[in-house]
Every structure is written in structure tokens, then in C-alpha cells.
Amino acid sequence: MTEDWRPAAQIAVLHRRAETLADIRQFFIDRGVREVDTPLLAAAGVTDRHIEGLREQATGRWLQTSPEYAMKRLLAAGFGDCYQITRAFRAGEQGRRHNPEFSILEWYRTGSDGSALRDEIVELVEAVLGPAPVETRSYAEAFRRQGLPDPLDATDDEILGAATQWLSGPRPIGLDREAGLDLLLSTCVVPDLPSRCFLVDYPASQAVLARLNPTDPRVADRFELFCSGVEIANGFVELTDAHALRARFAEDQAWRRRQGRPVPAMDERLLAAMEAGLPACAGVAMGLDRLIMLREGADSLEAVLAFPWNRA
Amino acid sequence: MATYTTNQFKSGLKLLLDGEPYSIVENEFVKPGKGQAFNRVKVRNLKTGKVIDRTFKSGESVEAADVMETEMQYLYNDGEFYYFMAPETFEQHAAPLEVVGDTGKWLKEQDICNVTLYNGEPLSVEPPPHVTLTVTQTDPGLKGDTSSGGNKPATLETGAVVQVPLFIQEGELLKVDTRTGEYVSRAKD
To answer: What pTM, to 2 d.p., does this model score?
Structure first.
């Protein structure tokens, strides 16, 4: 008889999960940050190079890969500080630390102070995981500490050479500079980071929707938080320039076309909102399932999900 | 040419890498949230047993190795080859001595074994988990001693030597666990 109707996580874990969700909501209520709920299905998807959306068959609408665009439209309309706890969907992402459907906590603070947002992230993480020292390291510094080439200045050949050396074997077919950096980051750099660590100043090529740093345009005002080697949060001081964003989307589309990948249309409603004026703001997306996984001392998301992909 | 994409990866899947057959031991999906996804796998070379790490970009296609695990009946050996027969097709396969290796000492004629075929040729042979074999040589034990501890070596009909209780006599049938190489019990014919 099939047993896969049962939850993968223990009931006690799911009870604690419910408490954590309530605590997080209280955290934001105490700070005057309002909860929002935006559609899971939207007319436009994302052009991100390495995120594949899922589409609803009957309407062709896209399941959100994060609530970012809808929340930015609210910010542009004057909503003010806001947070959301919702589900996001990314095709093909499945493993110990990935489930194609996952819980995301995303919040935005008006003003362009990334370090104030990082402080707030630390408070939230400490509320869930308990206190621990937090270090901050630049992306380049973290690479240098592993004896890797400087990700900002090294040539493509140096980056790819370092990837080959690190793998001590053949490197994946079609590895380009950015993929080489991603490979080194997740397999060489992250496992050696301090147990709670912000990685800041990502290379401008990986800015995504972050603004470039006003004093050093080689880097973006993008940061990530890693806890015990697990990527927990990704934050930006947001790009507010609609034209620059359109150009980035166009580059993503061109890259996708060259790769023979599907080329989703740009989200014109987001671009229109940005043209109307996105206030200076900083925002962060946090993987809630992973955070709860760490709180439970588990090493797989299945331990904290009621019904992971293969039981859903 | 059959291929697998990385999203089909799971342990036990057989891949052809650099012209050699491998079996996936472990598959890990790694991906920075905004970045390129990879599958990092540990694979075992099915010829040498050596385990190596390989990294693929997720979505990449990898050639499948034509590896099949089949149940076959062991027929006999001629000192150079061990002969097996597929029970349904009666097709016979000859496995060279070096493929059978140490496993040969557990192979009794008529027994059903797991034979792994690579491009139709035997790559490895696994005996049944338990075999029943006759003792061909062992020193006489203590008469009437059926309980007290103590072991002695016994040679079985296939040449295997196992430790048995002192009361076991030549000519008896024994049940042996081939995974541990240990005596389990006496067997009734």
C-alpha cells in the first residue's frame, strides 16, 4: 500500500513551522511593515538567465518565480514598506536544498540603505535560529581567500582555468565566465564561509535587479546571506532606472536566444511602474524552507516540507 | 544512441563517460539562486570499481551506457571462461575468469546469479546471497559437540573455505552467506 499520502516532515516539525510563520508575521507587525498578497499567476514571466518559470496550461500565464515584480509595482504606487510570505515556483530545481515549489519571504524597505536592511535580516534570522556572530565579506575577498583569481579583474581564461583546476577533471561543456564563477562560488567558496556570513559587492555582471555601486561600478549593491553554507537570502539596493532595467532584460533575452532557450517577454507592467517612479528602496528574498531546515538541524528540505515535490 | 539529461540522474543510473561504463553513486543538485545549476555526481567505474567526481551543467545530455543487469543460470566453467545461460532465451554468455574473479568460489552449477552485461558482454557476476554447498574437506570435530563455541576451517565443493562450528562433518550440506562469506546453518539436502 502506498505511504506517500503521509507528510514527509514530522508533525512536530510542522507545528514548529506554523509557530515560525506566526513569529515572522509578528516581527513585521512590530516594525510597521505591512503584509501584501499578490498574484501567483501573472501575464509576464522573468527573463533571468538561470531561472525557468512554470506556465499554467489553460491561460499561458506564468507562476511567479518570486513576488518581486508585483511588490515593486505596489512600491511604485506608494504602498510603502511591505513584506510577503508566499510560494514561488522554479522549473527543474530539485535536490536536497531545492524544491520546485518553495516558500519565500520577501520584504522591501524604502530608502537605499543596504546595511540597515542587512541589520534587520540579522534580527529576523536570530529570532528564528538564535544569536550567532555574523561576518561580512565581499564576493572578491571570499574568492581570494580560497586562492582563486579575482572575480572582478581576472580574464575569462583565468576563471575557467581555476574551475578546471578545482574540479581536477574535465569541466562541464559550454562553461562560460559567469557559469565558472557560479561553479566556484557554490562548490569552493560557500562551503568555507563563516557559519553566518553576508557576501556583498557581487560582480556587476551578476547585478540582476540591483543598482551598480555608485563609487565602484565594477560591483553591484547586491548581497546574499549564507548560514552554515546554505544560501538563505538575496538582497538588492534596488535599481530604480527603468531604462537600465530594460537594457538588462534585453541582454538576458539575447543571451537566452543565443543559448536556444525559451525567451520570455519583458514584464512591461513592471517597466511602466519603474518609469512612473520606483522609490529608492532595498529589498530581500529569503528561502523560508531552508531557514526552517537549519532551525531543525536537518540537511534536507524534505524534513520540513509537508508534501515535497514527489509527494505533492 | 540513448542519452540521459541531468534531471534524470539518480543513483544506479548507468552512464558512458570517456568510453567507460559508470554507475551513479550519488547525485547532488547545486545552484546559486540566480546562477547556473550544476549536477555534481560521484560515479563508479563498473570495470575498475574506482569512484570519481564529475560535474555537469544541469540540462546537459550524457550518453547512456548499455548496461543490463540480468538473472542467469550458471552452467559450468572450463578454467578459462564461466558459462551462463539466460533462462528465457537459453542464450549463453561466457564470462572470462578475470570478470568473475573471486566470485567464482561461490558459483554452483544450476544456481541463478546476477550477471551485469555491458554491450552484451558480461561485466560482473554476483552470486545468490545464500548458497548451499557440500563440505569436501574438514578436520573431524568433537563427537557429540553440537553447542559449544569454537570454529574450524572447512573446504566446500566450489573451493571456498569457510569457518564452521566444530560439529560439522565432511559430506554435509551448508548454507553460506556469500556477502559476508560466513556459515549460516546446516542445510537439509
So the answer is: 0.87
CB-nearest partner of A172 from B34, B52, B55: B55
Chain B: give the shortest CA distance to residue A51, in Å.
7
Pairing status of strand A34-35 against strand B161-165: unpaired
Contact A167 B55 (CB under 8 A): yes
A165 contact B CB<8A:
no
Residue ranges of domains in chain A, CATH in brackets: 11-133+239-311 (3.30.930.10)
Q: Which of B29, B53, B56 sits opposite A98 (nearest CB)?
A: B29
Query: Are B37 and A92 within 8 A, CB to CB?
Result: yes
Q: Do B29 and A94 touch (CB under 8 A)?
A: yes
Assign domain B67-126 one CATH number from 2.40.50.140, 3.20.20.70, 3.30.230.10, 2.120.10.30: 2.40.50.140
What values do phi and psi take at A20, rounded to 5? -60, -40
Nearest to A187 among B40, B57, B58 (CB): B40
Q: Would you write out chain A's pLDDT as a tens digit for each of its 312 residues?
A: 688 999 999 999 999 999 999 999 999 999 999 999 999 999 999 999 999 999 999 999 999 999 999 999 999 999 999 999 999 999 999 999 999 999 999 999 999 789 999 999 999 999 999 999 999 999 999 999 999 999 999 999 999 999 999 998 888 988 999 999 999 999 999 999 999 999 999 999 999 999 999 999 999 999 999 999 999 999 999 999 999 999 999 999 999 999 999 999 999 999 999 999 999 999 999 999 999 999 999 999 999 999 999 999
Judged by CB atoms closer than 8 Å, whether chains meet at A187 and B35 is answered as: no
Query: Which class for A247: exposed (0-12), middle (13-18), buried (19 or more C-beta within 10 A)?
Result: exposed
The cell 535560529 sits on which residue? Answer: A129
Give the ipTM: 0.94
C-alpha A105/C-alpha A70 separation (Å) is 14
Angle at A18 between CA A16 and CA A21, to 5 degrees: 110
Partner A contacted by B32 (CB < 8 A):
yes
